[in-house]
Design a protein that fits this description.
alpha+beta; 4-stranded mixed sheet; binds ligand EPZ; single chain
Length: 423
């Protein structure tokens, strides 16, 4: 099958095998980059993934006045002379994480503005929880058709008690960023407990903030008056990339060892796929000689429930394995785009509101499908491995937003995937 620009051709694969170390976590590194703006020192990030969203965030940090250098997975952020919270570039509209600069910019510069953030087309992506939380800390922030903007009175942000209406990951992160720059402590209730929150808290503690409770949903923050520290931080491996690789093995067969993932970050995926953790707890092995059998109902939910970012990828596995499955998507309101593309390869997935009914044991045939978002694109690549003929996946730029080299990772384990990257 002839490839075209910005497309991958995935060939049928019956077995994946080998050992792999995974890229740093996209959803951990982006909030930490935003947090670095509040530090009047130098932050060095190791195992920083070379993905589109990181380059976009680096461009936004430069617009804030940071000096950012990034090569060979090492990012150096010198925010000593950062001085600008009024962001105009369209970079902010390319991803959701740009909203995380609000907390740091309000905290450090006392002002913030930005065109409305972008993000995958997986549903409405309002920022009302973020705006309300900032205003609870003494800011005056509002969102209008031009974007989000706000400022802080002379006294700066003031710590307080906040209860989020939903354990929103991004809103939790923005509260952590702003509260770390406020005067007085903050208590945050109904906070997200995702591993990405743990990592942000680890970084903020390195700077000197006193933070407790990030794994409980009830977080207490006691800030320092300012941050001026040279720190280095190793970005943990990406749990969704790990789940993607494990799902690919479960649908083909094989023997794969991921040697750098904290297993407590993807326990539910590990148990669903009957993978096992190595003695160190920092590695996961999946060794199977027949395709996984899934006959189950899975509901996505806040950590430690099944991660919404794994939902599309699991649809691909359910389409070929097991009998009848139901997937319930409880986090986003339109995150079944991949189902339509999978059906074009022969899957039988019927969606109704937040439920998808998957009639499994289907044989997938070849064809051309189009990625519509990051994780939906990854699902189509994984489905190509399970198919009986080659599959072309178009619009692969979506995949490159979060996967440093999904094709390369899978090829290192025995898959055959050709990619024609857009310039
Ligand atoms: C983060 O998005 C991740 N993105 C998403 O990963 C992930 O799917 C999501 O958390 C849930 O785990 C990044 O970390 C950059 P939320 P975020 O705020 O923070 C609603 C990927 O593929 N909501 O927890 O935007 C919202 O609409 C991406 O890597 C409001 O209503 O997610 C959603 O229905 C996709 N108002 C729900 O809450 C708000 O102000 C959860 O969103 C904020 C959110």
């Amino acid at each position: 099958m002839q490839s075209e620009k910005n497309a991958m051709v995935v060939y049928p694969c019956s077995r994946l095998a080998g050992e792999i170390s995974l890229q740093g976590a996209k959803n951990s590194v982006l909030p930490i980059m935003a947090a670095a703006v509040a530090n009047r020192g130098v932050t060095v990030l190791y195992n920083c993934p070379e993905i589109a969203d990181v380059y976009t965030m680096a461009a936004l940090l430069r617009e804030c006045g940071c000096v950012v250098d990034f090569k060979n997975h090492v990012m150096t952020i010198d925010a000593k002379n950062a001085d600008n919270g009024l962001l105009h570039s369209s970079d902010s509209t390319r991803m959701r994480a740009s909203i995380l600069l609000m907390g740091s910019c309000l905290g450090r510069f006392g002002q913030f503005s930005m065109p409305s953030p972008g993000g995958c087309a997986i549903g409405k992506r309002p920022v009302n929880f973020h705006v309300d939380a900032m205003n609870s800390l003494g800011a005056s922030v509002c969102e209008n058709e031009d974007g989000v903007s706000g400022n802080v009175s002379k006294g700066g942000l003031i710590g307080g008690r906040i209860t989020l209406p939903f354990p929103s990951v991004g809103a939790t992160q923005n509260v952590l960023l702003a509260a770390s720059c406020a005067s007085g402590g903050t208590e945050l209730m109904n906070a997200s407990k995702e591993p990405e929150i743990w990592d942000l808290c680890d970084y903020l503690r390195m700077l000197g903030a006193d933070i407790q409770g990030e794994r409980t949903g009830h977080i207490r923050i006691v800030p320092k008056s300012s941050y001026e520290k040279d720190v280095s931080f190793v970005v943990p491996a990406d749990r969704i990339v790990a789940g993607t690789i494990l799902t690919a093995v479960a649908g083909t067969t094989g023997n794969v060892y991921i040697n750098n993932i904290d297993c407590d970050r993807i326990e539910c995926v590990i148990s669903l796929l009957k993978a096992r953790t190595d003695s160190s707890g920092r590695g996961v092995i999946l060794n199977i000689d027949r395709r996984a059998e899934l006959d189950c109902v899975i509901s996505t939910g806040p950590f430690p429930e099944f991660p919404t970012d794994m939902q599309s990828i699991f649809l691909a596995l359910m389409a070929v394995s097991g009998g009848f499955c139901i997937m319930e998507e409880n986090i986003f309101d339109t995150r079944f785009n991949a189902a339509y593309e999978l059906n074009r390869l022969g899957a039988d997935i019927r969606t109704e509101g937040k439920l998808a009914y998957i009639y499994g044991r289907r044989k997938l045939h070849g064809g051309t499908v189009t990625a519509g978002d990051l994780r939906g694109g990854a699902a189509l690549v994984v489905a190509g491995l399970f198919a009986d003929e080659s599959v072309m996946v178009r619009q692969c730029h979506y995949i490159h937003r979060g996967y440093e080299n999904l094709a390369g990772d899978l090829c290192r384990l025995g898959a055959v995937i050709t990619e024609n990257k857009e310039e």
